[in-house]
Amino acid sequence: MDGKEDGVAAMAATDQGFDSAAYLQYNYTPPRADFENNDSVLLWKMGCLHRAFTEGDVSGELLVDIGSGPTLV
């Protein structure tokens, strides 16, 4: 295999082993996602996105997010 094929194979292997339920549990439940703590990083991130789409120059109905983590479909 060449470098590109190696990369594609590595991505396919990663996708097969990805546990979406574990990802959500780890990143979007306390203590990492403490919705009762105003200093929570998750609340800050969600607030930034909310402001960008309601008050900023961003408009539309679809957000394409590239590179911030796994995509859960």
Automatic annotation (TrEMBL):
Q: Which GO terms describe its molecular function?
A: phenylethanolamine N-methyltransferase activity
| Keywords attached to this entry | Methyltransferase, S-adenosyl-L-methionine, Transferase
Database matches in InterPro entries: NNMT_TEMT_trans, SAM-dependent_MTases_sf
Q: Which residues form a coiled coil?
A: none
Annotated GO biological process: methylation
Q: Does the keyword Methyltransferase apply?
A: yes
Assigned GO CC terms = cytosol
Source domain of life is Eukaryota
Instruction: Tell me its family.
Output: Belongs to the class I-like SAM-binding methyltransferase superfamily. NNMT/PNMT/TEMT family.
Query: Could you tell me what this protein is called?
Result: Uncharacterized protein
Q: What is the lineage of its organism?
A: Eukaryota, Metazoa, Chordata, Craniata, Vertebrata
